[in-house]
Amino acid sequence: MVNIETCVPIRKGCDMGIKTSLVFSALVWGCSGLALAQNAAAPQDYPRRPITMVIPAAAGGGTDVVGRVLADELGKRLGQPVVVDNKSGASGMLGANAVARAAPDGYTVLVSYSTPVFYAHHMFSKVPYDIRKDFEFITQIAATSLVLMVNANVPVKNMKEFMAWAQQNKGKINYGSYGTGSPGHLMSAYLSDSRKLEMTHVAYKSEAPHIQDLSAGVVSWGMGTLAAAQPQIKAERLRPLAILGPRRLADLPDVPTMAEAGFPDPEFKTIAWFTMLAPAGTPKPILARLEKEAVQIIHSTAMKARLQVFGLEGVEGGAAQFRKDFEASNPIIDKLVKISGAKQD
């Protein structure tokens, strides 16, 4: 260690003040250098302690299930526990904002459903974070295509018959969704508006009561996830007519996509994503490690099997594909929100 007193001539009378100043400066620079060295070394031995995975939804829901499956596998690969912290509220923005404001050190990540990431800035005038500026994109985890379903008593068996029935009953038909501004609401509203069907929207607080009332005939049709609707489809209380997504679902191989059924609109290919993000400024080597491990988990046969149980499909992408899909979806989501009237102050 260099003795700073031997490097600088000291005048009598100023000895103590200058010595003190020099020693203080040396300590400041020394501590700064140590901090920089520690930060530079951090990615190499990351992680050194448990990681917090914030999920902006209540325990037991689809996002929670996806997050916990990923947390379990990620913890095994990283050699440190990944602890789930459910922070629901404000359409998922409460949890997302907590991660946006967290230290960008790789020890806090967000696993979210579509609304806080893809939809919030279209639906709400006041969003406490900027997805592009306040987050680093890590990867998409899984996607779910919605299913357009009718109550079993509705006299239609395909989309051609559905359209004829809707035209004959214009202004008389109710459809349900699992919340104002949900993907099911936005795409149902788009179908009604673009085909001049004059249908009435009934919003539910969550998917469970929506599916329950659709099965009971309180509403005639709606869009929902296969995970929630599968038991009622198997019980023949609901009849699936089409898949809103780019491909058919493995568990409903005979049900065509909307495009196959004669509805090629890109709006009907919009899917709901589960994604992983970190606070902006997280070191690139840490982001690369998280992306690598997460993508390998998503590619694994075991993970795909676990997701399929819930009607989900693993998305084999990383940060670049996530950002590309995010940007591509923006004009479509903006259009859907405006048509549905889901914009909120």
UniProtKB/TrEMBL annotation:
Coiled coil residues, start to end: none
Pfam short name (any one): TctC
InterPro entries cross-referenced by the UniProt entry: BUG (IPR005064), Bug_dom1 (IPR042100)
Record-linked PANTHER family: BLR1237 PROTEIN, TRICARBOXYLATE-BINDING PROTEIN
Family: Belongs to the UPF0065 (bug) family.
Protein name according to UniProt: Extra-cytoplasmic solute receptor
Organism, scientific name: Acidovorax ebreus (strain TPSY) (Diaphorobacter sp. (strain TPSY))
